[in-house]
Amino acid sequence: MTLGEIRGILGALVITQRTDMNKEIGRAYCADLMSDVLAFSVTQSLLITGLTNVQVVRTADVADIKAIVFVQGKRPDIDTIATADSKNIPLLVTNLSMFETCGRLYENGLRSAAGDTP
Amino acid sequence: MTKSSDGVFFLTGKDFTNAGSASSNLKGILDDMGIPADIVRRAAIAAFEAEMNAIIYAVAGMMRYSITPEAVTVTLQDMGPGIPDIDLAMKEGYSTAPDYIREMGFGSGMGLPNIKKNTDKLTINSVVGEGTTLEFVIYLQGLSPETSG
Protein backbone atom coordinates (compact mmCIF):
# COMPACT_ATOMS: atom_id res chain seq x y z
CA MET A 1 0.00 0.00 0.00
CA THR A 2 1.34 3.46 -0.81
CA LEU A 3 1.39 6.44 1.51
CA GLY A 4 -1.04 8.12 -0.88
CA GLU A 5 -3.52 5.28 -0.44
CA ILE A 6 -3.14 5.51 3.34
CA ARG A 7 -3.87 9.24 3.18
CA GLY A 8 -7.03 8.48 1.19
CA ILE A 9 -8.24 5.71 3.51
CA LEU A 10 -7.79 7.91 6.59
CA GLY A 11 -8.82 11.21 5.01
CA ALA A 12 -5.53 12.43 6.41
CA LEU A 13 -3.67 15.67 6.00
CA VAL A 14 0.02 15.56 5.05
CA ILE A 15 1.88 18.15 7.13
CA THR A 16 5.47 17.58 5.99
CA GLN A 17 6.85 19.04 2.78
CA ARG A 18 8.17 17.22 -0.30
CA THR A 19 6.47 14.03 0.82
CA ASP A 20 6.76 11.07 -1.56
CA MET A 21 3.19 9.77 -1.67
CA ASN A 22 4.32 6.75 -3.72
CA LYS A 23 6.39 5.46 -0.80
CA GLU A 24 5.43 1.81 -0.21
CA ILE A 25 4.24 0.91 3.29
CA GLY A 26 4.07 -2.83 3.97
CA ARG A 27 3.38 -2.97 7.70
CA ALA A 28 2.11 -0.82 10.56
CA TYR A 29 2.64 -0.51 14.30
CA CYS A 30 0.51 1.38 16.77
CA ALA A 31 1.87 2.73 20.08
CA ASP A 32 1.99 5.67 22.44
CA LEU A 33 4.95 4.07 24.17
CA MET A 34 8.11 4.92 22.25
CA SER A 35 9.96 2.38 24.39
CA ASP A 36 7.87 -0.30 22.66
CA VAL A 37 8.63 1.09 19.21
CA LEU A 38 12.33 0.86 20.06
CA ALA A 39 12.08 -2.57 21.67
CA PHE A 40 10.01 -4.47 19.12
CA SER A 41 11.99 -3.89 15.93
CA VAL A 42 9.13 -2.46 13.92
CA THR A 43 11.54 -1.12 11.33
CA GLN A 44 10.36 -0.02 7.86
CA SER A 45 6.76 0.34 9.00
CA LEU A 46 4.09 3.00 9.48
CA LEU A 47 3.82 4.29 13.06
CA ILE A 48 0.33 5.20 14.29
CA THR A 49 0.38 7.23 17.51
CA GLY A 50 -1.40 9.80 19.63
CA LEU A 51 1.83 11.34 20.91
CA THR A 52 3.06 14.43 19.10
CA ASN A 53 6.35 15.39 20.78
CA VAL A 54 9.66 15.59 18.94
CA GLN A 55 10.83 12.33 20.52
CA VAL A 56 8.29 10.50 18.37
CA VAL A 57 10.12 11.72 15.27
CA ARG A 58 13.54 10.96 16.75
CA THR A 59 12.34 7.49 17.73
CA ALA A 60 11.04 6.96 14.20
CA ASP A 61 14.38 8.09 12.82
CA VAL A 62 16.53 5.70 14.84
CA ALA A 63 14.06 2.81 14.40
CA ASP A 64 13.83 3.32 10.59
CA ILE A 65 10.08 4.03 10.64
CA LYS A 66 8.87 5.01 7.17
CA ALA A 67 6.07 7.44 8.11
CA ILE A 68 3.97 8.57 11.09
CA VAL A 69 0.19 9.02 11.39
CA PHE A 70 -1.07 11.16 14.29
CA VAL A 71 -4.62 10.29 15.34
CA GLN A 72 -7.53 12.29 16.82
CA GLY A 73 -6.51 15.38 14.85
CA LYS A 74 -3.46 15.92 17.04
CA ARG A 75 -0.79 18.06 15.39
CA PRO A 76 2.87 18.28 16.39
CA ASP A 77 4.47 21.71 16.75
CA ILE A 78 6.40 23.40 13.97
CA ASP A 79 9.82 22.32 15.31
CA THR A 80 8.75 18.69 15.32
CA ILE A 81 7.50 18.99 11.73
CA ALA A 82 10.81 20.61 10.74
CA THR A 83 12.74 17.75 12.37
CA ALA A 84 10.64 15.24 10.43
CA ASP A 85 11.29 17.14 7.19
CA SER A 86 15.02 17.12 7.86
CA LYS A 87 14.92 13.34 8.43
CA ASN A 88 12.64 12.77 5.44
CA ILE A 89 9.94 11.15 7.59
CA PRO A 90 6.43 11.96 6.30
CA LEU A 91 3.87 13.09 8.91
CA LEU A 92 0.12 12.64 8.45
CA VAL A 93 -2.74 13.81 10.67
CA THR A 94 -6.14 12.10 10.74
CA ASN A 95 -9.20 13.11 12.70
CA LEU A 96 -10.05 9.43 13.22
CA SER A 97 -9.51 7.72 16.56
CA MET A 98 -6.65 5.28 16.98
CA PHE A 99 -9.07 2.32 16.88
CA GLU A 100 -10.77 3.53 13.71
CA THR A 101 -7.41 4.35 12.07
CA CYS A 102 -6.05 0.86 12.71
CA GLY A 103 -9.35 -0.76 11.74
CA ARG A 104 -9.63 0.97 8.38
CA LEU A 105 -6.00 0.25 7.46
CA TYR A 106 -6.37 -3.41 8.45
CA GLU A 107 -9.58 -3.68 6.47
CA ASN A 108 -7.70 -2.41 3.43
CA GLY A 109 -4.95 -4.99 3.78
CA LEU A 110 -2.27 -3.40 5.95
CA ARG A 111 -0.88 -5.82 8.53
CA SER A 112 1.04 -5.68 11.81
CA ALA A 113 4.75 -4.90 11.85
CA ALA A 114 5.06 -6.81 15.12
CA GLY A 115 4.63 -10.09 13.26
CA ASP A 116 1.49 -11.21 15.08
CA THR A 117 -0.62 -11.62 11.96
CA PRO A 118 -1.65 -15.16 10.99
CA MET B 1 34.37 -0.74 4.90
CA THR B 2 37.92 0.08 5.96
CA LYS B 3 37.50 3.62 7.26
CA SER B 4 37.50 4.56 10.91
CA SER B 5 35.92 7.47 12.72
CA ASP B 6 35.52 8.74 16.24
CA GLY B 7 34.02 11.72 18.01
CA VAL B 8 31.99 13.00 20.89
CA PHE B 9 28.57 14.59 21.47
CA PHE B 10 27.74 16.59 24.59
CA LEU B 11 24.41 16.07 26.31
CA THR B 12 22.47 18.44 28.56
CA GLY B 13 20.21 16.99 31.23
CA LYS B 14 16.44 17.66 30.80
CA ASP B 15 17.02 19.16 27.32
CA PHE B 16 14.14 17.24 25.74
CA THR B 17 14.11 19.46 22.65
CA ASN B 18 17.43 18.01 21.56
CA ALA B 19 17.11 14.63 23.23
CA GLY B 20 17.97 12.01 20.66
CA SER B 21 19.85 14.29 18.30
CA ALA B 22 23.26 12.83 19.21
CA SER B 23 22.03 9.33 18.33
CA SER B 24 20.42 10.66 15.19
CA ASN B 25 23.73 12.26 14.17
CA LEU B 26 25.59 9.06 14.96
CA LYS B 27 23.15 7.16 12.75
CA GLY B 28 23.90 9.58 9.91
CA ILE B 29 27.66 9.06 10.35
CA LEU B 30 27.25 5.27 10.30
CA ASP B 31 25.02 5.48 7.21
CA ASP B 32 27.55 7.70 5.44
CA MET B 33 30.34 5.22 6.20
CA GLY B 34 28.44 2.46 4.47
CA ILE B 35 27.88 0.36 7.61
CA PRO B 36 25.19 -2.34 6.98
CA ALA B 37 21.64 -1.08 7.71
CA ASP B 38 20.92 -3.69 10.39
CA ILE B 39 24.01 -2.70 12.39
CA VAL B 40 23.22 1.00 11.95
CA ARG B 41 19.72 0.44 13.33
CA ARG B 42 20.94 -1.60 16.31
CA ALA B 43 23.60 1.00 17.15
CA ALA B 44 21.16 3.91 16.73
CA ILE B 45 18.50 2.30 18.93
CA ALA B 46 21.00 1.40 21.68
CA ALA B 47 22.57 4.87 21.56
CA PHE B 48 19.13 6.52 21.65
CA GLU B 49 18.04 4.54 24.71
CA ALA B 50 21.30 5.41 26.49
CA GLU B 51 21.07 9.06 25.45
CA MET B 52 17.50 9.32 26.75
CA ASN B 53 18.60 7.81 30.07
CA ALA B 54 21.36 10.41 30.43
CA ILE B 55 19.01 13.28 29.54
CA ILE B 56 16.24 12.04 31.83
CA TYR B 57 18.39 11.34 34.88
CA ALA B 58 21.66 13.28 34.65
CA VAL B 59 22.74 16.92 34.82
CA ALA B 60 25.03 16.45 31.83
CA GLY B 61 26.82 13.77 29.90
CA MET B 62 28.80 12.91 26.83
CA MET B 63 28.53 10.29 24.16
CA ARG B 64 31.77 9.12 22.59
CA TYR B 65 31.81 6.88 19.58
CA SER B 66 34.52 4.91 17.87
CA ILE B 67 33.92 3.20 14.56
CA THR B 68 36.53 0.81 13.18
CA PRO B 69 36.36 -1.88 10.49
CA GLU B 70 35.81 -4.36 13.36
CA ALA B 71 33.26 -2.69 15.63
CA VAL B 72 31.10 0.24 16.64
CA THR B 73 31.79 1.25 20.25
CA VAL B 74 29.68 3.86 22.04
CA THR B 75 30.39 5.17 25.54
CA LEU B 76 27.86 7.25 27.47
CA GLN B 77 29.30 8.96 30.51
CA ASP B 78 26.96 11.00 32.66
CA MET B 79 26.96 13.13 35.77
CA GLY B 80 23.82 11.66 37.21
CA PRO B 81 22.50 10.06 40.38
CA GLY B 82 24.06 6.68 39.57
CA ILE B 83 22.35 3.29 39.59
CA PRO B 84 22.27 1.67 43.06
CA ASP B 85 21.40 -1.82 41.78
CA ILE B 86 22.40 -2.50 38.17
CA ASP B 87 20.91 -6.04 38.13
CA LEU B 88 17.54 -4.59 39.14
CA ALA B 89 17.81 -1.81 36.53
CA MET B 90 18.45 -4.45 33.86
CA LYS B 91 15.09 -6.13 34.56
CA GLU B 92 12.40 -5.43 31.99
CA GLY B 93 9.73 -3.17 33.42
CA TYR B 94 11.78 -1.82 36.33
CA SER B 95 11.83 1.97 36.17
CA THR B 96 12.32 4.95 38.43
CA ALA B 97 11.19 7.46 35.77
CA PRO B 98 8.76 10.18 36.88
CA ASP B 99 5.30 10.51 35.33
CA TYR B 100 6.21 13.34 32.94
CA ILE B 101 8.79 11.08 31.30
CA ARG B 102 6.18 8.36 30.86
CA GLU B 103 3.85 10.90 29.28
CA MET B 104 6.55 11.48 26.65
CA GLY B 105 6.45 7.78 25.79
CA PHE B 106 9.52 6.67 27.73
CA GLY B 107 10.45 5.39 31.16
CA SER B 108 8.74 2.02 30.94
CA GLY B 109 11.80 0.14 32.12
CA MET B 110 12.69 -1.25 28.69
CA GLY B 111 15.74 0.90 27.96
CA LEU B 112 18.67 -1.02 29.47
CA PRO B 113 17.28 -4.46 28.45
CA ASN B 114 16.81 -3.10 24.93
CA ILE B 115 20.40 -1.83 24.82
CA LYS B 116 21.57 -5.30 25.85
CA LYS B 117 19.35 -6.91 23.20
CA ASN B 118 20.74 -4.77 20.39
CA THR B 119 24.43 -4.98 21.26
CA ASP B 120 27.15 -7.64 21.44
CA LYS B 121 28.79 -6.38 24.62
CA LEU B 122 27.44 -4.09 27.35
CA THR B 123 29.34 -2.74 30.35
CA ILE B 124 27.81 -0.50 33.01
CA ASN B 125 29.81 1.12 35.78
CA SER B 126 27.95 3.34 38.20
CA VAL B 127 28.75 5.22 41.38
CA VAL B 128 25.77 6.51 43.35
CA GLY B 129 25.97 10.29 43.62
CA GLU B 130 28.61 10.60 40.90
CA GLY B 131 27.34 9.12 37.68
CA THR B 132 27.15 6.23 35.28
CA THR B 133 29.34 5.08 32.42
CA LEU B 134 27.69 2.76 29.93
CA GLU B 135 29.63 1.26 27.05
CA PHE B 136 28.39 -0.99 24.29
CA VAL B 137 30.05 -2.69 21.36
CA ILE B 138 28.49 -3.99 18.16
CA TYR B 139 30.80 -6.12 16.05
CA LEU B 140 30.67 -5.71 12.31
CA GLN B 141 30.21 -8.74 10.07
CA GLY B 142 29.65 -10.97 13.08
CA LEU B 143 33.22 -10.48 14.26
CA SER B 144 34.02 -10.78 17.92
CA PRO B 145 37.39 -10.96 19.71
CA GLU B 146 36.85 -14.69 20.18
CA THR B 147 36.17 -15.50 16.52
CA SER B 148 38.46 -12.95 14.86
CA GLY B 149 41.52 -14.17 16.75
Précis, in short:
The complex is a heterodimer of chains A (118) and B (149). With 118 residues, chain A is an alpha/beta fold. Helix content of chain A is 36%, strand content 16%.
CATH class of chain B: Alpha Beta
Quaternary structure classification: heterodimer
Elements of chain A, N to C (H/E): HEEHEHEHEHE
Full CATH superfamily name of chain A:
HprK N-terminal domain-like
Count of the domains of chain A: 1
Query: Which two protein chains have the largest interface (Cβ within 8 Å of the partner's Cβ), and how many residues from each?
Result: A-B, 22 and 27 residues
Q: Which geometry of chain A do the CA atoms define?
A: globular
CATH class of chain A: Alpha Beta
How far is it from the N-terminal to the C-terminal residue of chain B, by CA?
Answer: 19 Å
Biggest sheet of chain B: strands, sense, closure?
A: 5 strands, antiparallel
* Strand tally of chain B: 5
Rg of chain B, Å, rounded: 15 Å
Measured as a percent range, the helix fraction of chain A is: 25-40%
Q: What order do the SSEs of chain B take from the amino end to the carboxyl end, as H and E?
A: EHHEEHHHEEH
Description:
The complex is a heterodimer of chains A (about 120) and B (about 150). Chain A has a single domain (about 5-110), classed as 3-Layer(aba) Sandwich (Udp-n-acetylmuramoylalanyl-d-glutamate--2,6- Diaminopimelate Ligase, Chain: A, domain 1), CATH 3.40.1390.20. In chain A, about 35% of the residues lie in helices and about 15% in strands. Chain A is built from five helices and six strands; from the N terminus they run αββαβαβαβαβ. In chain B, helix 1 packs antiparallel against helix 2 and helix 2 (about 35-55) packs antiparallel against helix 5 (about 110-120). Helices cover about 35% and strands about 30% of the residues of chain B. Chain B has helices at about 20-30, 35-55, 85-90, 100-105, 110-120, 145-149, and strands spanning about 5-10, 60-65, 70-80, 120-125, 130-140. In chain B, strands 1-2-3-5-4 form a five-stranded antiparallel beta sheet, covered by helices on one side. Classes of the chains: A alpha/beta (about 120), B alpha+beta (about 150). The interface of A and B includes residues 56, 63 and 87 of A.
